[in-house]
Each structure stands twice: as C-alpha cells, then as structure tokens.
C-alpha cells in the first residue's frame, strides 16, 4: 500500500469510478471533494465499507471544503458539467471555465506541490486554464484525453481484428475533440505494425468512430457522458506519476516548440514519471497527418484564445 494523498475534485460519475479504482489499486489515501453536500461523503463511505471485500487498506474521506486538499500529492479534477446529447465538448467552455478557475485558485493555496490531472472538458482549454490560474510548472499540470482516445481506437481495432485489446497499442493525438488524429502507422498488434494486418480504408472508419466515440456514448446515456474508461485512463496517468513508471502515454501536455507549437496544450505522446511530463516524444508524420494535426491545434487555439480573453 502506497500512502500518498490523492484528491479527486468532483465526486460525480468519473470521480466515483476513480475512487473505486484507486482503492482497488491501493495507490494512496483518497479524498473526494465536491460542492454537493453528502455525495463525496457518501461515495467515500460506501467504498470504505467494501474494503475488506477487495482487500484494500486505502482510507477514503469526503468533503465539501477545498481546505482538505492540503498536502495532496496528486489531484485529479473532474469538477464541472458533462455534455448532453446534441452538445459538443466546446459547448461546456464558459460554465466549466468558471469552475476550473475556482478549483485552480484553491489548489494554488492548498496543494502547491501536487501533480494535477485535468479531465474536465473542453479538455485542452481547461488544462491550459488550470496551469495559467495555478502558475504550477507545466510538467506538473496535464490533461487526460490521449490515454482514453488511444484506448478507444485500440478497442475498435481489436474488435475489428478479433484480437485481445490488451495486445493493441494505438496513438491518437491533437485536441480532444472532433479534430483528433489517429495514426495508422503508430498502431501495433502484438508488435506487428497495423498496416500489415488492416487496410487504410478500414482503419479510417475506425478512426472516424474514435473521434466520435465520446458522442456515441453521450447519445446512448442521454444524461451524461462516458465515465468508466475516462476514470480508468486518468488513474493510469496517476499511477505512472506515483510509481515513477516512465510510462509512454499520450496526454495533453504543454508544448514548447515541439511539433512547431508553443505555449499550447495538445495531445502528444510523453514519458510520464515522478517529474510529471519528463519528455515529449515527437512522432514523424506524413503530409496528410501533419495537416490534420495542425488543423486540430488550430481548434485548440480558438478555445485557448477564449480562455485568455476571460482570465483575470
Ligand atoms: N468544485 C467541486 N466539484 C464541483 C464543482 C466545484 N466548483 N462544480 C461542480 N462540481 C461537481 C459536481 O457537483 C459533480 O458531482 O463535479 C461533478 C461532476 O460530475 P458529473 O456531473 O457526474 O460529470 P462526470 O461524468 O464525472 O464528468 C466530469 O469530465 O469528461 C469530463 O465532460 C466531462 O466536464 C465533464 C467532467
């Protein structure tokens, strides 16, 4: 059992999923924080009561007070509202920005050394806002999207080929929106490059489904967005940091000239360990991929300009 302090700001669907996964993995003690009275307390107590069943020594608590974030090693932020059918992630910009601003101000006071993982949408703009409000080093403020988008593509490839998803590795980059880019040459199936197993036309269909995968689930749920796979993806990132795994995963990281982009958060493959984002990896792109990536960066830039115009 690793007794680090992990705070989950937002105890909704994703927050609850993460609390359970963290308790099962015993990655640390868990504090659930939410504005709704009773929900973080109830969810943490519910999982506490199940610990002897899952053989976990994690201690969970729930609070409505940001002061309880004090001393957190990792903070995962899902505070905000999810989208409903017919909404894009970008439609959440105004409402979720004001929430991220409040949480960021609290984090600056209470947990200045934390590794912060933002999940709230629209992701690339919200993680940018979080870094700006807190002033924390950019390597310690990241956004969860690429792990999820890549996992979704890996799932669709595995389903198409009839193989185990655990043997499929995929890379989806760019903004966490309709413009995200799936890389044909970066998918491997048990170490075999995908182009040897699947034609590009089939891949393009799976890539299109990936870009719309969040919307597909919103349309099914009708009253919220995906939460199991987003929660598990964020925990994978927390684990890489807490265990200094040097994991290669895709996340929204602040670019400083990589891919010709500076001062923006965008989904790229990184090495993640005890220093947070320890290295940004640059994959080679063909002309079409580069054009698609640049288009995605342009979409992120539009949202970030809105944030810059609204931040104090
Ligand atoms: N501080 C703390 N918690 C807050 C705040 C705040 N200022 N404002 C809202 N919350 C809480 C809500 O009370 C709710 O419990 O955030 C929680 C969000 O949970 P859900 O509505 O269940 O949403 P969820 O599915 O978990 O998604 C959260 O992640 O993937 C993104 O688009 C999604 O932006 C959404 C976020």
Strand order of the largest sheet: 3-2-1-4-5-6
Mean pLDDT: 96
CATH topology (fold) name of the largest domain: L-2-Hydroxyisocaproate Dehydrogenase, Chain A, domain 2
Portion of residues within helices: 40-55%
Total discrete domains: 2
Bound molecules: adenosine-5-diphosphoribose
Main β-sheet description? 6 strands, parallel
The helix/strand class is: alpha/beta
Measured on Cα atoms, how large is the radius of gyration? 19 Å
**How many angstroms does the end-to-end distance come to?**
41 Å
The helix tally amounts to 10
Q: How many beta-strand segments?
A: 14
Sequence stretches where pLDDT stays below 50 over 5 or more residues:
none
Could you give me the name of the CATH homologous superfamily of the largest domain?
Answer: Lactate dehydrogenase/glycoside hydrolase, family 4, C-terminal
- Content of β-strand: 15-25%
Give me the strand/helix succession: EHEHHEEHEHEHEEEEEHHHEEEH
Please identify, by name, the CATH architecture of the largest domain.
Answer: Alpha-Beta Complex
The top-level CATH class of the largest domain is Alpha Beta
Q: Quick one: overall form?
A: globular
């Amino acid at each position: 059992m690793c007794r680090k302090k992990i705070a989950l700001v937002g105890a909704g669907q994703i927050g609850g999923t993460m609390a359970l996964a963290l308790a099962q993995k015993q990655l640390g003690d868990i504090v659930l924080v939410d504005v709704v009275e009773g929900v973080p307390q109830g969810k943490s107590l519910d999982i506490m009561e199940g610990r002897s069943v899952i053989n976990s020594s994690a201690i969970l608590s729930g609070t409505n007070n940001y002061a309880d974030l004090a001393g957190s090693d990792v903070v995962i932020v899902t505070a905000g509202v999810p989208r409903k059918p017919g909404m894009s992630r970008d439609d959440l910009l105004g409402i979720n920005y004001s929430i991220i601003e409040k949480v960021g101000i609290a984090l600056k006071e209470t947990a200045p050394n934390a590794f912060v993982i933002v999940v709230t949408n629209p992701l690339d703009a919200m993680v940018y806002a979080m870094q700006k409000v807190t002033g924390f080093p950019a390597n310690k403020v990241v956004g969860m999207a690429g792990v999820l988008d890549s996992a979704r593509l890996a799932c669709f490839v595995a389903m198409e080929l009839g193989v185990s998803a655990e043997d499929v590795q995929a890379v989806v980059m760019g903004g966490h929106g309709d413009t995200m880019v799936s890389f044909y040459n970066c998918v491997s199936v048990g170490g075999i490059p995908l182009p040897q197993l699947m034609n590009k036309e089939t891949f393009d269909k799976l890539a299109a489904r990936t870009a719309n995968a969040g919307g597909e689930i919103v349309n099914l749920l009708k009253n919220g967005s995906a939460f199991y796979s987003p929660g598990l993806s964020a925990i994978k990132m927390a684990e890489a940091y807490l265990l200094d795994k040097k994991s290669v995963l895709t996340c929204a990281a602040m670019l400083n000239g990589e891919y010709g982009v500076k001062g923006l958060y965008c989904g790229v493959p990184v090495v993640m360990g005890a220093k947070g984002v320890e290295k940004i990896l640059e994959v080679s792109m063909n002309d079409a991929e580069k054009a698609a990536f640049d288009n995605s960066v342009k979409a992120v830039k539009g949202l970030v300009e809105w944030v810059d115009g609204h931040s104090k």
